[in-house]
Batch of 3 targets.
Target 1
Amino acid sequence: MSIRDRPRPRIGPDNAPFWEGCRGHRLMLPTCAECGKAHLPPGPVCPFCLSDRITWQRASGRGRVSTWTIVHKAWFPAFRDDIPYNVVQVELDEGPRLTSSLVSLSGRRPEIGQRVEVVFDDVDDTLTLHRFRMLA
Amino acid sequence: MKVDAAIVGIGNSSFGRGLPDSQLRLAATALKNAIADAGIERRDIDGLSIHLGSPIGVDYDRVAEAFGLEIRYVNQSWLHGRFVTNALQHAALAVSARLADVVACVTAISFTRERGFLGGPSDFEGNREEGGTHGEAPPYGLTAPAAGAALAMQRYMHVFNATSEQLAAVPIALREHAMLNPRAIMKEPLTLRAHQNARMVVDPLRLYDCCLISDGAVVVLVARGNRAKNMRQKPIRIAGMQGIRSGRDEFIFAPRGLGINQQSTRASASRSADQEVFASAGVERGDVQGFYTYDAFSPLVLFALERFGYCGAGEAASWVQGGRIALGGELPVNTSGGLLSEAHVGGWNSICEMVRQLRGTAGPSQIADTAVLQWGTAWGDSVILTAGADRQ
């Protein structure tokens, strides 16, 4: 990776279905076939009951902003032109939280509790990032 | 096995920004100073508990080789604030179990030469499997540990109606402490106005809510109690300990139950499980005369105070007002200035300050009649130090 490039997710056996789902514009959650609970980040076993039987279920794609920040410092050259940019954690309706960003914020500050819905950002042929848009 | 260990020597390099010395050179200076402080010989050191580098540093064998040590016990972890307590505790456990007689806790940091590691392109931490442990999300531009503290503080402010102005009390108090400390890097007074006018780094953290990026080394020597009695310095007893708390309800830079990452949203007051260190040391929380904590970001001080029950959940932002955590206040915090204003030596600079306080050699920062001090972190590990080598 050149320092001019944006970091990409490190995709491995446990989280590959998650990022493959994003490429197909589907937000997929690892879900335990035994206890029924969904979890993030994707792990090798269910963190609640330690079962190996993980199935991938399509999530509703909806949730609420649970926390946020706006980054003002250029830690990475690749993000310099985006400053200031937002990063949020979204608590999905299914329970797990994931870190993403809001689209179309147009200078406003994110709000905790804001209802949001997933959208997909096709970065290139091999990577699609999830982002979220605000719901009324 | 009972823990029977004392700090018998401390040493540091100079602290600064852009120091020309290698990390090993800084460590060598700190080691020599610690040996002289303890009044022992280099050959008396037979254990190492180290976390060097930022985060890349040498392993224990290079340290032993470079400094001509003969070692029979090693504990090694990363240079992360989260492993300061761990390194000190392993030293105490090792001497108590007679795996070593004198363990040198060594850390050395050259942050200014290796800035790219701190949230920059060289920082591979966030690219470990499923990301870094401060909430890093590199594809979304969240690449530095500060981001984790920001995500936590933002939600804390929302849930508990805390403000940036309240948070400012933390760096302001620590700056007052640094101004009494000739080793400290920051010498200028910090006002609320300056705090509020400083640039935003990662909302809601402003410049002075983020610690120094600095260079320096510290060595702390730990020996078994009976051996410590015969050394030059008054032994500072490692009287009680509790380990790191971890699990899905924990996030390194948030109180339990704040709802960061996969934490629950069941915030609660400090539990007895968070306060085992007091019984371990045979003291009450009210006996603690000064509190020392990892203050890489000012919210971490609030979270640590709540963790150990100095105030209730969500109360710390108000609790720290009115000089309560400054010297002369009810519970002075990080009396040498901490990472926010003295230097970032992982937190070992504050461990050294605790030792000076308990020896009664802290100079203008001295807390009167110091007998019991606590080191405790936002992630729940802790060590209580007391004056004297004997068990109570």
Target 2
Amino acid sequence: MTVIFGVFLLTLLVITAVAIVRTQNLFVAVMLLGIFSLLIAANFFIIDAADVALTEAAVGAGISTVLFLGALALTYEHERVVTKHRALSVAVVVCATLVVLYATFDKPTFGDPNAPVHQHVAPWYLENEPKFIDIPNVVTAILGSFRGYDTLGEVFVVFTAGIGVLFLLSARPGTGGARRPDNSKSSGIGLQHDLIPRIVGRSLIPFILLFGLYVQFHGEYGPGGGFQAGALIAAAFILYALVEGEQRTLEVLPKNALIALTSAGALLYGGVGLAGILLGSEFLDYSVLATNPVTGQQMGIILIEAGVGMTVTGVLLLIFHAFAARDQV
Amino acid sequence: MQFLGIFYYWVFAILLMIGFYAVVAKINLVKKLIGLSIFQSAVFLLYLTMGKVTGGTAPIYQDDVVGQLFSNPLPQVLILTAIVVGISTTALGLGIVVRIKEEYGSIEELDIQEIDQR
């Protein structure tokens, strides 16, 4: 049964990808990319990656689509087709495909428990996680504690990307592309005249927020954690902005609050790491946060997951507002 | 299961190359970023495929079950963070595309090169 599902979903995935590349309408391509994300999330779920599937569904199918549409609104929808170097490109791609396909024959068998990837640190993590950290979700434990350095780095990459988008889109350029004046009529209308999307959207928002908080605080016990929750909460606010207009969203959650939230999240993560040093151990060692090392680890993970959630929510919303606040040239 | 394994790897290869084609052959910058997203998703699929163990489940301990077989959690952790980093970098790319549109009036690579050579 799994085989049939897997083959079906993978085939759909390839068809969608081909359609994305072939279509000349960028709006269609972006919509198909949302479908592509949802399909690949289902695939991730089949191969046991519940946490990743949740992230991909929230980020890929939700927020990424909105950001691409925001960019399209500021540019245009129809791509020009140029056939100049197509034969050369196809030749290069076909050669590369053959090389990659040849390489797949050397890969370990799918699902083989003796594959090299299952021999290194992963069994140690699985075996010792109940002893050191003792939370049911091993993915969250590795993300927060065993691999805390990696996650700290990723959070700062997200943070830096957010700052980069603000730099690019908040500046007032010399020629054209001015920021929209605050009192302009076009800002803040949203979908207020479309009754059904407005009512449905508004009634969905509290549930999305609630689910986001559940995913945040239940991440130790089931699939979830700061990254997924951040994306979900950001999605709720983006939905509010789409329904009620950007201006009203900024009244609920002003830009300064978002910047504070983003920085506070990153600082909370770094701060928990420093607390480890101050209490006499190493950076990002949570064992010393409480008298019982296992409780300390759990406290540390909850704190850093909160930091991750805050930063991801803040950055995604800042990026959204940066695109939404810009006027088309 | 054997067939599905080969199928997963081949779909990875094909998706990777579809994304690669969009990056090298298309001149529209938004389309290139879309291609890059597909390329990235293909890599995610490869990592997670390698982490799967036959008969395993998602790596979450349950109270009343002993001797559970789990798929490898490590690739999942790497990819989970990579997805969120991916959307942030894509957003940065889109920001650059929007600025290019404002300065050059076009997001087609050929137009931009032409304007630059003037």
Target 3
Amino acid sequence: MRMRILLWGISILVLLVLPPLVIAIGQPFYLDLTRRIMILAIAAISLNLILGYGGLVSFGHAAYLGIGAYAVGILGFYGITNGWLQWAVAIGASALVALAIGAVSIRTSGIYFIMITLAFTQMLYYLGISVAEFGGDDGMRLKSRSQFPGLVDLGDPVAFYYVALGLMLLSVFVVYRIVNSRFGMVLRASKSNEARSRAIGFSPYPHRLAAFVIAGAMCGLAGALYANHTNYITPGLMSWQQSGDIMFMVILGGMASTAGPVLGAFALLLLEDLLAGWTQHWQVILGPLLVLSVIFFRRGLAGMFYKPDA
Amino acid sequence: MSFALLFEQLLNGLQFGVMLFLMAAGLTLVFGIMNFINLAHGSLYMVGAYLAVAATQWTGSYLLGVFLGLAGTLVVGMIVEVVALRTLYDRDHLDQVLATFGLILFFNELVAIVWGRAALFASGPAWLQGHIDLFTGSRYPLYRAAIILIGLITAIILWYVVTRTRLGMLIRAGASNRTMVAALGINIRLLYTVVFGFGAVLAGLAGLMAGPIYNVQPGMGELILIQVFVVIVIGGIGSIRGALVGAIIVGVVDTLGRAFLKPLLGTLISPPAAESAGPALASMSIYLLMAVVLAFRPQGLFPARGG
Amino acid sequence: MLEVRRLTKSFGALRACDSIDFDVAEGETHAVIGPNGAGKTTFIGQLAGNLRPDAGAIRFAGKDITNLPAPKRARMGLARSFQITSVYPEFSVLDNVALAVQARSGRTGFWRPARGDPVLVDPARRVLEEVGLSSRMNILAANLAHGEQRQLEVAMALATEPRLLLLDEPMAGMGTEESQRMIALLSNLKQRMTIILVEHDMDAVFRLADRISVLVYGRVIATDSPGKIKMNQEVRKAYLGEDA
């Protein structure tokens, strides 16, 4: 336990001093990269809630990245640049869509559930493509970043970095509290043994749906951040390749662990960055690597450091 | 909107449905019998298309190209099964999803390395280039009619195999109770391999037939795969009959939606609004259909598993 | 407390339960015995809410529960233990029972940790003490010996403060010493609880049961006190043989 706290402390420290460090050595690219990783880590953290702890293999989680991003983009398109409003809509819209999709999907299980969540995400993807006003297939440029007047300027790379870091840590903490709360215990128990849970009087469905909505909302926030980070929003953000990427972060890092999704995000995205530097055909290497990792590397990175939370 | 136009679109819907069926049949059997979710099925579709195009260019003969394409797809499918998928049969669905996802990345990139990212030009054989005359007075592309014919023949063959042969009996038994079939001493490994091979050939067939109509390019498999998922969810896992019914429904709904929703909406709401709402709704139509079916029948229309 | 009338369930051509009538009075321990394949599991499944009967009715504490889903029955006070151990393997013994206590309390929370909460932990501890697993509180359920797992099964059912305990072969797979411990536990329980006991262990059945129902091929062929059941010709022929 103390080991865990120590590792967390060191990691947070490293992330805190990163900006001045990379600026000092003249490599601001790493600031950008780390920020991107942390934002996607939030998506992974949210997915871990329903996938790692809840056992819901949702292949459509990237949908909420897209919804969050487009909320920022579309509101900005119409001149609404207030960050609080934009991000509130991003979170709210994601939660509503998650409620709608979850209400239908969670009544199913197994292969059905995987395919259905995938199909609904694809539906949103096509919706995004077909609405030409917002760029359709090519996507749209962000007119301006989310404004938080008097508080922080997201245009400042370092300030934005710390906002992302803070929100990532907040997400970690929120999920940590949720999964250890009564609600979280029921969610985890339902994953562990559904028949037993029903036999003592728990109804898995409402718990799963609630978790699904929370995860969607959190991912929507990640989407809003991502839009600000890239300044450009494409429907590709909602593609199932993106969903698969997020899933891999969760698995690679170790499911049902607090640090897992963060570790996984760093591992996968750094690996992608590294491979992309070697060849433009890096996916031909990444693909088999992922297959091998699934076959041989079940417990994920967090499993290497310590036993996952019971 | 004339009846001739409607009928032509119905035929298009049927043609699309038939291709969806070829993909769905193999996939639903793999789901039902092996409880294995294979995202890389779309890659086999893509491999079929590419190999057929390459083989046709190489040999100069369309039929030879088709044969080699199918054989090649079968070989690729078998290799993938033995090397990567065998170890995953006992794993949970999440692992299967992730591993086959990795395979998709691999195949898409492999195909891009060999043939480039631009769409390949694939034309059907010269003897299928014409049109046939419909009773409605309009003409319909011979190639598409051929697809419908081949698809229906395949459906009949499949129906025959599944309902009238011993192999088919094993398949149906396996789809409704896998453990029982294994307990009866049937060589389950062999059955799995046969089923997988079946599916691979069907996917390859769909792919090579699709070549001249849709684009032959990396990622083509995934576009159709998700629609195949919708077919299977609507039809019910493990059921060939469900796959056929689901495929026809999805094919027709999607095609008719794309053709007629925009003009239809244009009569109800303002044309400029219909301009964007039309295509948007059309592309969402089959998913909304799936949601409706699920609301009433969460197991699909003809689930293979009883109760 | 429990009334079953004309309960029927078929699987295709197989009549697993054939118009079963069955009663349990409050405070009674009513055992259900019968050869394998007699339909005991199907019967329990319908009582617990995992299977829908084709016909017939089940009344619990005066309410019709025939179509009530399992979680609702549990919340009404109908608890069950499983024949094949069904606990939460990755959680500790204490966590397992605390979860059952939490289910009983019906209250939820999204923020405060469930683990340290005395509202959950204290009753859980008491149940574990009664069942005899106090010393194994912090062991992962997966690491328990088989007999201990069976005890945990009972503990979890107990922790929901049930009005009716449905025990499905609690002694399954136990050695003699473990069985004796379980029988002792159940003897204590029977003083304050209504129990339906499905069992093969005849020793336990005859020591614990106030009444015994014998199930053969989906029908109840006899319901009587243990003494009378021992003497019943049909029962001896169908099931007891020379054992009794």
